[in-house]
Automatic annotation (TrEMBL):
Ranges for region Disordered: 19-40
Binding site for Zn(2+): 309, 313
Cofactor comment text: Binds 1 zinc ion per subunit.
Protein name according to UniProt: Peptidase family M1
GO molecular function (one): metallopeptidase activity
Record InterPro entries: Aminopeptidase_N-like_N_sf, M1_LTA4H, Peptidase_M1_dom, Peptidase_M4/M1_CTD_sf
Biological source species: Agrococcus carbonis
Location of the Peptidase M1 membrane alanine aminopeptidase domain: 307-446
């Protein structure tokens, strides 16, 4: 890392790794976007995008294959800050109404329940971020680049979609932009052609994904690849940082091996890390990918935590993932816990020590919401992931290591690529408890009660505690 002064890095890490204050959440002034239309589900998105990065202009055609849940005489797509110019459904022109955050479409004839249909929307404009209770999300244009990082509510700032976490579809994105701007989108790069100073790149996903886990980056990036890893690992760093920044990601293949051992097979074909040239408020995971802030990637041990967190989200989040934001603790609790597992595996602080450290932090913080019912403005609050990780640790103490890791592997495998709920997790955890024991009291305390339960210690766990667990 060459561009950022070391002192600035240390300061950033000090404030990031000890989230002692659990900073006040984003202003709840704006309501959560009423995203998604449950009357239909998307099966596939085919996006043809033309971008003039220099002037922040996007023209697109989105072809969406959908299936009707019930009889449909109207349906909605999320689209924010961009305007539709033509809409067809099954090849016939469809009427549409443009609302500030969605398009309402009316097919020429009603679509019967269960039927598949094809929507085509031509659209365009100057894409921009949108305000949500969890901060500004979506397309950001900066000089010679643009970033649409994966986030809840972000996708409609660059393509029309059914923006529900439980609505997963496959994706093909073909993006044409100025040759000097490299496009990096969710999916595997399958084709690249240059003509008259503009480069077209095509990305395809094999696994279905929610719009909230899709991303697009445009800008000057250097590309690096790890050759000796369980799956192909690709990294992009801003050209301005130089190739040394790629070396700061050298730990990722070892991390991948560590997590494959603990969580089971990696759920996708590859993994792509993008180091963003300008400040994102927080790193984000996407399907088979992640984006990090340039000033948080420097090869130091502190910088490994977000790398571990994001990589673990491929199993928990992008793979098996909460069906809506109320189940977010599942994805983030497991990803946080993975940070602690990596720390221990790398010879740093143990999971038990980290659990106690975070328990103390949480004990000193407000305990004013239940893990499964956080208010919308707290959906990105660190307390959710930290309390979720403590729950995971408490579960490990109650189950013992072998059943605990069997549970994590079963969770990742049985629900691969599927949306899940807290109840799904409770059922599977219960199936891994010793015969005659129940996890209900433990899970109820951690999930439903705002007050922080005491943390059982692995080291201090003795016969008395085992008997108590068994007796429940
Ligand atoms: Zn996370």
């Amino acid at each position: 890392m060459t561009a950022v002064p070391r002192a600035a890095l240390e300061h950033a890490h000090a404030s990031a790794s000890h989230a002692s204050a659990y900073p006040a959440s984003a202003s709840p002034a704006s309501r959560p976007p009423a995203s998604g239309d449950p009357t239909w589900s998307a099966q596939h998105y085919d996006l043809e995008l033309h971008c003039d990065v220099a002037v922040n202009r996007l023209e697109g055609v989105a072809r969406i294959v959908g299936r009707a849940a019930g009889d449909l005489d109207a349906l909605e797509l999320d689209l924010v800050g961009l305007a539709a110019t033509a809409v067809t459904i099954d090849g016939a022109p469809a009427a549409w109404t443009q609302h500030p955050e969605r398009l309402e479409l009316r097919p020429a004839a009603p679509i019967p329940a269960g039927a598949s249909f094809a929507i085509e929307v031509a659209y365009g404009g100057s894409p921009a971020p949108r305000a949500t209770p969890w901060g500004e999300v979506g397309w950001r244009h900066r000089g010679e680049g643009a970033i649409a990082a994966a986030d809840a509510g972000a996708a409609p700032t660059w393509y029309p979609c059914n923006d529900r976490l439980s609505d997963r579809a496959t994706l093909r994105i073909r993006i044409t932009a100025e040759q000097r701007c490299r496009a990096i989108a969710t999916g595997a790069l399958v084709e690249e052609t240059t003509d008259a100073g503009r480069t077209a790149r095509t990305f395809v996903t094999r696994a279905p994904t929610a719009p909230a886990r899709t991303s697009l980056h445009l800008g000057r990036y250097l590309r690096g690849a790890a050759t000796r890893a369980a799956v192909p690992l690709v990294a992009y760093v801003p050209s301005a940082l130089g190739p040394r920044a790629l070396g700061d990601l050298a730990v990722v293949p070892r991390m991948l091996a560590c997590f494959v051992e603990r969580f089971g097979r990696y759920p996708f074909d590859d993994y792509t890390i993008v180091v963003a040239p300008d400040a994102l408020e927080r790193p984000r995971e996407s399907l088979a990918g992640a984006v990090l802030r340039a000033d948080r990637v420097d090869g130091s041990p502190a910088a490994e935590r977000p790398l571990a967190h994001l990589l673990a989200h491929q199993w928990f989040g992008a793979g098996v993932g909460g069906a809506d934001l109320q189940h977010r603790w599942l994805d983030d609790g497991l990803a946080r816990y993975a940070e602690w597992l990596w720390s221990e595996a790398a010879g740093d602080a143990s999971t038990d020590a980290l659990a106690h450290e975070h328990h103390e932090l949480l004990a000193d913080s407000p305990q004013d919401f239940a893990l499964t019912d956080p208010p919308p403005e707290l959906l990105v609050d660190d307390r959710i992931g930290h309390r979720g990780a403590l729950l995971v640790h408490a579960l490990r103490v109650a189950l013992g290591d072998l059943p605990f890791f069997a549970l994590l592997q079963a969770w990742a495998a049985q629900h691969a690529h599927g949306p899940v709920t807290t109840d799904d997790f409770r059922r599977l955890a219960g199936a891994h408890a010793r015969a005659g024991t129940s996890l209900d009291a433990l899970l109820d305390a951690w999930l439903l009660d705002p007050a922080l339960p005491p943390l059982p210690s692995r080291a201090r766990r003795g016969r008395g505690e085992r008997a108590r667990l068994r007796g429940r």
